[in-house]
Every structure is written in C-alpha cells, then in structure tokens.
Amino acid sequence: MWKLPSLETRTAAAGLSSPPDTDLLVIYQDAGKKIIAPQGHYAPLVERFKKGEAFSARSGSIQYVRFGAVGKAENVMLVGFGQASELTEEKARLAGAHAWAKLSFEKARSVSIDVDSMLEARGLKAENAPAGLVRVIRAFTEGLLMSAYKVDKKTQAPVLSKAGKGKVSTKSKSPAHDYFGPERLIFVTQDKDVKKELDHELTQVTSMAEAINVARDWSNEPSNIGTPEFYAAEAVRLAREHGIKCTILDEKAAAREKMGLFLGVGAGSEREGRIVVLDYTPKSAKGAPLSKTIALVGKGVTFDSGGISIKPSMRMEDMKHDMTGASTIMGAILLAAKWKVPNRVVAILAFTENMPDGLAIQPGNVLVSRAGKTVEIINTDAEGRLVLADVLDYAHGFSPDAIIDAATLTGAVTVALGKHCCAVLGNDESLIQNLQRAGEMNFERIWELPLFDEYFDDLKSDYADMKNSANDGYGGTIRGAIFLKQFIKPGVAWAHLDIAGTAYGMGHLAYYPKKGASGAYVRTLAQFAADF
Ligand SMILES: [Zn+2]
C-alpha cells in the first residue's frame, strides 16, 4: 500500500525545521461570482486574478503559482470554493481531490494549508466558526487523502497455490524514489479551539483513508494472488494490528457447519474457500448505554467465471472484483475499530472461487443449505446469493441486533440505478433509513428497491424449496435479495446492499481512482456502526 501523507496541525507555519514548499489557500466568490481577496499576505496576488479569466474561484477550480513567493513558501496554490452560501461537504471533498491531483502534478512535497482562509474570506471570525466549518475542512481533507492511492505494479509472479496448499508470495513494485504525492500536510490555524477539533477530525480521516485503501487493495488484487487463503491470512494479520478477534473456517469447518451452498459454489475450484470471522468488541465505558451487535456479511467470490453457466469473455477480468462486498466489510470493521465505535461489530467474509471444472455444480443440481432449505441451481452464475445464504444463516448465531450484507450481487443493479448510488433491500424500514442517513453524510447514496413477497413466486421450484435464479432477466436485483431473505429468521432486522455498480470504475468522482476498486461504502458502514 502507498504511504499516506502525514497530517499535522499548527498555530503557525513558522518555526518548522523544513518549511513547506507550497502554501494552500481557499478562495471564495461573492454573490456576483467575483473573487473575494483574502486578507493579509496573499491579498495582492489574489487581487491580480480578479482582472483575468484564468481563475475565478469557482468550486473545485485550482491555480498553482510556482516561484510566486512573496516571503512565505516558494509556491502558492489557490483552491476555489465558489460561493460560501452554496458550499457543501461534497463540494469541499471534490475540491480536495482536485487539489491533490494538482499538488501531485506539481510535485509538491510539503503543503501548508491555511485553515483560517476558510474563515476569513467568509467574513467570519474564528471564534464564530460554525460547527459545520470543521466538517467542511474534514471533507476537504477526505478529498485529499482518498485521492492518495495508486495500485502497486506486480513484479513477480505468485507461486500458484493449489487446493489452498503452498505459499503465495509476490513482490510489488513501489520504488522508494518514485514521487507519488505530498508527504506532509500542515493545517495552520491561529485558533486553538479549531486546532483541537481538527486534531481529532484529521486522525479520523487518516484512519478512514487507510481502511478505504485496504478495501481497494483487496479488491484490486488479481485472483491468482488474491485467493481465499490469501485474504484469510491478510485478515489475520490486519485483525491483530487492530485488536480484533479473528477466526478462520476452512472447507472442513464449513462442511461441519453444513454450508452446502457455500461449498457448492467452490466445488469447481482447485483453491479452497475460507470464511473469515472478525469480532470487534468495544471496551465498555462505565455508564455507557448497552452496546448493540451488528453483523456485517460480505460476499468474497475471488474470481467469478460464472461456473458452468460461464460468462462472456468481454471484461471478464473485472470478475476479480467479485469479492468487493468482503473487502468493503473488511475496511468497515477496521475503521470501526480505529474509531472505537460503541457497538460490537462482527464481520463474516465468505471467500470462494466460482470455476467450471469436472466437479463444478451444474444447472439442475439441488443443494442443501445450512438452514436446511434446498435450492435448485438454475444458473451457476447466480452464485453470490448461495455463498451469502449460508453465512447469513451463520450470522444469526451472534444474536445480532441487525444484519447487513454487502455484495456485488447483480449486474441488474447497474442497469437499474447506474453508478450514482447502490441499492438497499431489506425487512426493516428504520434499519434502512439509518443506513441511508449514514450514506448521505458521506455522499455514498443508497436507494431502496422494493422487496414484495410476490417476487419469491419467480423463484419457486418443482425440485427444491427454491431456485437460485429464474430464466428471464426481470427484476434481477430484487430476486437476488428475495432469495437472501429466505435465510433471515423472523424478527431479525436485515438489509442487503447490492454494490455491483459502485464497487469499481467510479472515476467520475475525483476522489475515487480512475480505474479499479473505489472503496465506496467503507465510510458509510463504519459510520453506521458508530451511530447505530
Ligand atoms: Zn456470478
């Protein structure tokens, strides 16, 4: 993983042993969309931009002035925030992402961020800073740090692991001399209260970016390296680092648990599946309200060929991302632990591979689930719901107050909703609303689709309790969810997030990588765990 820049707060940029090479100033527009020049040092410089059209302080616009030093840092970067009345956290987040791109392009290493410029230009005194302002600075920083990500190039082929045996070893190419981006971001404010609040917020943002990058790294891992065994080993390592309890179920243990659906999906793969169970329990403070238990369940199909119902070859390489539900949940529980959320979080990640060999399940086969319900396989490419059904059933054993699963479950969700939100379906309105609220706070939007019982009629089978798919393309996302619902016990609150549309290829938002995994919904799920 690439190293994130260090964040620090100071009351003055002066006195640093190595002074920053770039000063970063936020510039607002007035009601007539004209630049408001800041007070102080850079006023004359900004004043000159008023005359031209190069920089208008439009939200997210950037101007980098190299060697423009009039005393302080060598270079100065102006970041437009538009009109104060129209500023939102998301605009600040996008501005942060644009700022990161420019700072990287200009090879800035150390940046001093003038926090007070965010106050002064709005005619505010620091002591009157609205609480929302710290949220804006936080969002701006999220934009900076979420952009600080690159995939490591592989330089060494892995030693292939068969049937879960043998070591997978790889080397990644990230030479120390490669410039990647600023190494140091210094937030300067004269106000001690703002500084104190920022210290807390910036630590949270760093944890957030680290967790998101774990989710991205996992999702981007090629499936000859990112095997179930690999993720299990990584989970053990990361859990230890974060003080989370971690247990691994191999296929023998899954067989003892009678997980016939999970094992059925992996039947055609040489590589053994693994179920990772992570348990974060908060240290309860005296007088704190009794904490709740949240079970997070993730689909971890490390490669989905479709099985015997094999997929077309076009863009099949993207099917290495079919474990993004699991990587998202992993990121979320790591972040929940870092944030020390007050609720217990149990994460269950089900890793397996969907391959078409001589032992692979075939259309028409009947499998028996852990819950004892039987399933007729119509389409072996509808495997995610099979994997999830058994682990959703298993999750009930932790007596959760809510179960939430995340999965790249259906292509249909992208047809229905595009890439600007994920889908939620479930059996509990207040749970769904809580998830949506946590999503709104992070601009990770969640849209509810219906889950009428009648949809189950489409999955009725002559040979088993249900089919895993129907033979037409109608309502695919809903059918996936209504299938999962059969494995939720009465009275248990449950919500299913179909993240197939948002898991990767989210470059239209500047803080997501142009290509590959987005890391979306890590923030939302951790936020939910904090607020539930
Ligand atoms: Zn599939």
- Measured by DSSP, the beta-strand proportion falls in 15-25%
Structural class assignment: alpha/beta
Mean pLDDT: 91
Using the coordinates shown, work out and report the CATH topology of the largest domain: Aminopeptidase
| Overall helicity | 25-40%
- Biggest β-sheet strands, sense, barrel: 8 strands, mixed
- Spell out which ligands are present: zinc ion
CATH superfamily of the largest domain: Zn peptidases
Shape: elongated
Secondary structure topology:
Blueprint: E1 6-10, E2 22-29, H1 43-49, E3 62-65, E4 75-83, H2 89-105, E5 110-114, H3 116-120, H4 131-146, E6 153-154, E7 172-173, E8 184-188, H5 192-220, H6 228-242, E9 245-249, H7 251-256, H8 260-266, E10 274-280, E11 293-304, H9 324-338, E12 344-354, E13 366-368, E14 374-376, H10 384-395, E15 402-407, H11 412-417, E16 422-426, H12 429-441, E17 446-448, E18 466-467, H13 476-485, E19 494-498, H14 522-531
Parallel strand pairs: 1-8, 2-4, 2-5, 5-8, 11-12, 11-15, 14-18, 15-19, 16-17
Antiparallel strand pairs: 3-4, 6-7, 9-10, 10-12, 13-14, 16-19
Bound molecules: zinc ion (ZN).
